[in-house]
Amino acid sequence: MSASVLNLILIIAIVMGLAMVFLCCFVLISSVGDGSLCAEEIEIEPATNNPLQN
């Protein structure tokens, strides 16, 4: 029983590790590529909100 439990823990740990690496790579790719576009959109939104506030 203990061996099977350890195997399950190792499998879960490996899956979680791969998921974290995939998420990190996805965030890095999005920040390099689409991140600039998102930053431009964020910069445009305050520009449209400022005239409304003024």
From TrEMBL:
Q: Tell me which UniProt keywords the record has, alphabetically.
A: Membrane, Transmembrane, Transmembrane helix
Biological source species: viral metagenome
Q: Which spans are transmembrane here?
A: 6-29
Q: What is the lineage of its organism?
A: unclassified sequences, metagenomes, organismal metagenomes
Q: What is this protein called?
A: Transmembrane protein
